[in-house]
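4.2 Preliminary Data

To establish feasibility before requesting continued support, the project team ran the inverse folding procedure on a target of 858 residues. The structure was first converted into the token representation described in Section 3, and no sequence information of any kind was made available to the design step. The complete token record follows.
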């Protein structure tokens, strides 16, 4: 049986062309869809909570007919808010009964900071579907552009499995839509240029008069230029850097028209069509542009220019543990984010292109020009003279375009990744078709006569191997695709030393750790990218430099930047973390016990000499850190002071003083010190100088803010609170109201006119609402005779401000009414919510506590 008859019996051979195309499209969609759709609730990136909120505001404005208000951002990210709005609408339809409020009200109530994970996933799904479909469309365009199904399929696979595009394609943001629509616009543009070039070169198309004008009109009407302009308009609506397509498209149209025909305007008419379609698309899909069809595009241009030239923001960016790469930023960051298969494939493409060029020049010298001219359209020289060369030009020029901007991120270079994947696919297939190209002339002649089937089989085998290799490279990073760094460049070993790392990935694990631990669930945590922790942690979140923190989280990107200060980072690193996050070999985050190190502002350092002379160069304080959130009245206050010091440390100890809160200027000697403690400057680590102090706090201090000084230099303030009940009170155990507030002590003072009751309360939780205290005198039958209801300390210190374990002592005076009859009476106390009157209950279910004392009226 012949090979041909055997192949004809294969199931694939029996399928029609349409069926084969459908299976390829479906396979590519699934290959792109599955890694993008997997585990969409695992982590949150830094900007997504804002994009969910902006999507809600966009849709809300649209539903209310306030079209101007749909301009929620000038990046402009309209495609992002459309996709987010679609996700929100679908989510509401599936959860309408559980939400229980009108759609518009629900949208208006969505918060800006803390996004629910199920809502976030709903807004991510449209992005996943769009980017997965784009892989299929790119395949279809490449198959027409290069007349090669295998090249188109391999390029689509490389795009589908590229970790960096996957990472950005499964979150709600504007980088992925910009990449998708810029790529589609570029490919449609090249397809249109290729078609027009072929028609122009066709001798049968060269006609005179009206026939030529009709041909040109039909060409424009059916040209991919319209679709390219449509995609460009959507790209402009996605992100301002997509405006690069305008000069690039102009360059393509002008160079493609060389040599220029006599009628220049007619030759550039596709460019005009492209621009008009792009503008109409921009206006049609942005409701704000319906009201301002000129003003909105101008505003986007202006905002893009301001953002790109914002030198102040760029100058504030820190480079502590990574270098400032300057003009090489995108070259280095892009290389680290590039798939090794794409990097090698692009290198192969460059190698074979140069080799082919050299071979072409040698062939010209040998008089073999005609053979080269007859080379098929898929050969390297013809490709590099057309579409492939334009892909290279786009990659290089867009990189230079973005390098000129002062605002930078590895995500901003994302649009070059699909063109690089296409170039890489061509390089790999060139390798498969030219393996063993070296040898004698006779050997080369023999290879030229090799069967087309063998060549196709080798390329198909290589493509299959590359698909498997791409999958093997990708899977270890799922779903944390942002943690991918090119292993050919050292991956996790070299990337942290050269590029900034982290956009929220890993902070989900920090949030889960804090949430699952009983001791930290209600804590106050300082962290960067707080919105990425919020969905996983119910506690309070703030900046890492805030006072009274229970935990401090240091994240990789902030550490690399030296934020908030190198000394801040060194101090906590030497202290040791209680939880760490490592993803794919990269150390992402650490959780440290609070409080945070309080950094001194620039106007408070260095120390001024006693006579008001110039600052000393020897040593001055950088910050201070109490070792507890609040000072405990009647107990020692331990604290560290971090110093900037010279080569030699002072021998004499330094003194820290506590004074009443007041003016932050002047010498501490002019203010009475309530407590003092000496400390010796010590080097705890390289470039880390610390003095430790232990201040005995008097038991008679009142709750409130106090000032801290060191050697006459104002450090800051600390809040002192009481955590011990007075010794003279009767102690009580296991009396806890609503599992929130305990009654731990009491005292009573009966008189002829009133009953005085002193109660010591203690907070059992980190947070609670405001409650009102009731104290009542009851008859033996439970009838209320007298009582008083009041917030703690007459409202000066409400329960919502109490911290965990804080003790608040309050006195309640219950006036005895005139004609108060003799008898035996009970005294009860408790708490209730003032809005509802609902009382807090004890463990046994009682809504009050009876004082173990009988009030006897004689």
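Position-by-position output of the design step:
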């Amino acid at each position: 049986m012949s090979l041909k008859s055997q192949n004809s019996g294969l199931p694939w051979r029996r399928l029609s062309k349409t069926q084969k195309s459908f299976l390829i499209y479906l396979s590519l969609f699934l290959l792109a869809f599955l890694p993008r759709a997997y585990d969409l609730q695992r982590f949150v990136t830094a900007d997504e909570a804002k994009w969910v909120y902006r999507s809600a505001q966009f849709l809300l404005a649209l539903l209310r007919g306030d079209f101007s208000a749909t301009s929620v951002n000038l990046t402009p990210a309209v495609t992002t808010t459309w996709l987010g709005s679609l996700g929100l609408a679908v989510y509401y339809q599936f959860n309408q009964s559980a939400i229980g409020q009108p759609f518009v009200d629900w949208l208006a109530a969505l918060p800006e900071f803390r996004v629910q994970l199920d809502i976030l996933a709903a807004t991510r799904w449209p992005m996943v579907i769009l980017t997965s479909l784009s892989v299929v469309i790119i395949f279809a365009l490449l198959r027409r552009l290069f007349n090669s199904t295998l090249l188109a399929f391999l390029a689509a696979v490389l795009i589908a499995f590229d970790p960096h595009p996957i990472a950005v394609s499964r979150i709600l943001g504007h980088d992925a839509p910009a990449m998708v629509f810029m790529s589609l616009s570029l490919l449609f543009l090249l397809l249109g240029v290729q078609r027009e070039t072929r028609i122009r070169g066709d001798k049968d198309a060269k006609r005179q008069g009206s026939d030529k004008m009709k041909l040109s009109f039909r060409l424009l009407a059916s040209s991919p230029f319209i679709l390219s302009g449509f995609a460009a308009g959507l790209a402009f609506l996605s992100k301002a850097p997509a405006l690069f397509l305008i000069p690039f498209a102009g360059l393509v149209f002008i160079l493609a028209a060389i040599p220029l025909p006599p009628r220049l305007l007619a030759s550039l008419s596709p460019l005009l069509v492209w621009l008009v379609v792009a503008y109409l698309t921009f206006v049609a899909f942005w409701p704000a542009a319906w009201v301002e069809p000129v003003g909105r595009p101008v505003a986007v241009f202006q905002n893009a220019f301001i953002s790109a030239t914002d030198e102040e923001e760029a100058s504030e960016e820190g480079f502590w543990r990574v270098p400032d790469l300057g003009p090489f930023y995108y070259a280095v960051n892009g290389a680290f984010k590039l798939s090794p298969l794409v990097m090698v494939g692009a290198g192969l493409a460059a190698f074979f292109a140069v080799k082919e060029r050299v071979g072409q020049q040698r062939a010209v010298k040998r008089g073999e020009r005609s053979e080269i001219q007859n080379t098929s359209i898929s050969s390297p020289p013809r490709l590099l003279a057309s579409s492939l060369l334009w892909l290279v030009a786009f990659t290089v020029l867009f990189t230079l375009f973005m390098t000129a901007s002062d605002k930078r991120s590895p995500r901003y270079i994302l649009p070059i990744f699909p063109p690089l994947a296409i170039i890489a696919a061509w390089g790999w297939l060139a390798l498969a078709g030219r393996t063993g190209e070296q040898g004698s002339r006779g050997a080369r002649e023999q290879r030229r006569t090799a069967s087309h089937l063998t060549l196709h089989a080798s390329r198909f085998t290589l493509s299959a191997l590359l698909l498997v290799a791409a999958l093997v490279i990708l899977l270890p990073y799922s779903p944390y695709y942002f943690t991918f760094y090119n292993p050919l460049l050292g991956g996790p070993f070299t990337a942290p030393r050269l590029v900034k790392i982290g956009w929220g990935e890993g902070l989900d694990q920090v949030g889960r750790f804090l949430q699952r631990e009983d001791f930290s669930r209600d804590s106050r945590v300082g962290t960067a990218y707080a919105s990425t922790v919020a969905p996983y942690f119910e506690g309070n979140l703030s900046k890492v430099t805030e006072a009274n923190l229970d935990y401090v989280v240091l994240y990789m990107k902030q550490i690399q930047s030296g934020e908030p200060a190198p000394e801040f980072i060194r101090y906590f690193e030497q202290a040791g973390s209680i939880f760490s996050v490592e993803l794919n070999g990269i150390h992402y985050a650490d959780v440290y016990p609070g409080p945070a190190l309080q950094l001194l502002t620039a106007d408070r350092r260095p120390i001024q000499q006693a006579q008001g002379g110039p600052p000393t160069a020897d040593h001055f304080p950088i910050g201070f850190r109490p070792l507890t959130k609040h000072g405990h009245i009647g107990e020692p206050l331990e604290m560290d002071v971090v110093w900037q010091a010279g080569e030699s440390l002072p021998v004499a100890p330094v003194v820290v003083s506590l004074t009443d809160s007041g003016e932050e200027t002047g010498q501490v000697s002019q203010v009475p010190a309530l407590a003092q403690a000496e400390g010796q400057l010590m080097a705890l680590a390289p470039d880390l100088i610390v003095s430790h102090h232990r201040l005995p706090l008097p038991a008679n201090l009142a709750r409130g803010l106090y000032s801290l000084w060191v050697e006459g230099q104002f450090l800051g303030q600390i809040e002192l609170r009481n955590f011990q009940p007075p010794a003279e009170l009767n102690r009580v155990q296991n009396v806890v109201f609503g599992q929130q507030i305990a009654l731990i002590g009491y005292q009573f003072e009966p008189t002829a006119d009133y009953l005085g009751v002193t109660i010591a309360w203690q907070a059992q939780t980190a947070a609670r609402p405001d409650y009102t205290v009731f104290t009542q005198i009851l008859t033996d039958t439970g009838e209320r005779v007298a009582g008083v209801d009041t917030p703690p300390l007459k409202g000066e210190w409400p329960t919502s401000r109490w911290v965990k374990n804080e003790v608040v002592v309050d006195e309640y005076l219950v006036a005895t009414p005139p004609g108060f009859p003799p008898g035996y009476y009970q005294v009860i106390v408790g708490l209730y919510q003032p809005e509802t009157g609902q009382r807090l209950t004890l463990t046994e279910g009682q809504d009050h506590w009876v004082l173990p004392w009988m009030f006897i009226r004689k």
